[in-house]
Structure formats: structure tokens, C-alpha cells
Amino acid sequence: MDRKHRIAARAAQELRDGDVVNLGVGIPTRVADHLPPGVDVYLHTENGLLGVGPAPKPGEVDPDVVNASKLPVTQTPGCSFFASDLSFSMIRGGHVDVAILGALQVDAQGRVANWSVPGATVLGVGGAMDLLVGAGRVIVTMSHTTRDGQPKIVQNASLPLTADRPVDLVITELAVFQVTETGLVLTELMPGATLEEVRRRTAAEFRVQLA
């Protein structure tokens, strides 16, 4: 698997039978392709579909069935379609068990910046603010550094925060961090990663509690 799919596959291991799960833009959309065998979850996309399936095979693409990233998806038996306002009511009403989001930065307290890039045109904040407030559990999936090698896990975010609520878990291609009341805790190294590399490429303080 490539880096993004490895991250998505690790995030999929956090899901439990019966969870309603919102998949954000980017790496989170790949989680649908890595659900653990025997675990039935209900994948939700904020543009109005509950019951998202894995990516369609060539020749099976329906251009009218897409996720929040505008990428084609499949439907699971018993899925339902609804308007965007109802979709956001589900989020704000606490009916989403897990949200898996991408991020531009995560600070030392586990707070996320993922909606505004200086110098870039952004059409809107999407549902991230609502999900950070309304979802039962929030997992961030992202690359550990930017394309030019700058850390994305930082002591203090230089980008606008999306919400004040900290997330629960951060998963990158190098590491898994639990977010606690006292900050970030490194609990797992991804295959091939070393503690020295994680320290070198992380700009936030964290504690180490590897199994």
C-alpha cells in the first residue's frame, strides 16, 4: 500500500461494529476500502449519503453518487440519501459516532487547523467545524510533514484553528498519537518508522508510551 492507504488502513482499525462514521476529504475517504472483516459500520458523507461503500471499480462509476470530495463512491444495501441540511442535523445532533478528518496542522493540545491556507482560495469551511463539535470521537489522518518537509504536528498552530475541541487520535505515516488532557502521547510507531525520526519531524512536545 502507498502512504495514504497505510494511514487509512490504520484508522479503519479504530472503528467498531455499528459505528456511524463520517469520512472527511482526502486520506479519510480511503478508509472505506480498508474496513476490518466482520465489522459493519455506516459510512456517512456530509453531502447526503448514509451507507457509503468502497470505491467503484472501472465501468461501475455513477457520476451522481459522490462523496464530500466529489469522488465516485458505491452504495451499500439499505443506504439512504438526504438533503445537506438533514446531514448537518445528524452531525450537530450528536448522531455521528466517529469523524475521520484530514488536517493541515495539529497543535500540542490536539486542536486542528484544516480549513484555511494562506494565499489559497477556499470556498468554505465545509463540515469540519460541525464534526469537531458534534462527533463522538474524532480521528485525524494526515501526512507527518508538508511537501517541503515542514512538521504538521506543531507546538502552536500558525494557521487558524477549526475548533477549540481537541481530537482524540492523530495517525500519520510515522506514528499514532493519543490526545490526552496533558497533551500528545506517542503510543505507536508505524511500520518502518523510528522514534528518532518521529522526534526529528515533530515540532510539538509529546510523551512516549510505546507498548
UniProtKB/TrEMBL annotation:
<comment type="similarity">
    <text>Belongs to the 3-oxoacid CoA-transferase subunit B family.</text>
</comment>
<protein>
    <submittedName>
        <fullName>3-oxoacid CoA-transferase/3-oxoacid CoA-transferase subunit B</fullName>
    </submittedName>
</protein>
<keyword id="KW-0808">Transferase</keyword>
<dbReference type="InterPro" id="IPR012791">
    <property type="entry name" value="3-oxoacid_CoA-transf_B"/>
</dbReference>
<dbReference type="InterPro" id="IPR004165">
    <property type="entry name" value="CoA_trans_fam_I"/>
</dbReference>
<dbReference type="InterPro" id="IPR037171">
    <property type="entry name" value="NagB/RpiA_transferase-like"/>
</dbReference>
<dbReference type="Pfam" id="PF01144">
    <property type="entry name" value="CoA_trans"/>
</dbReference>
<dbReference type="GO" id="GO:0008410">
    <property type="term" value="F:CoA-transferase activity"/>
</dbReference>
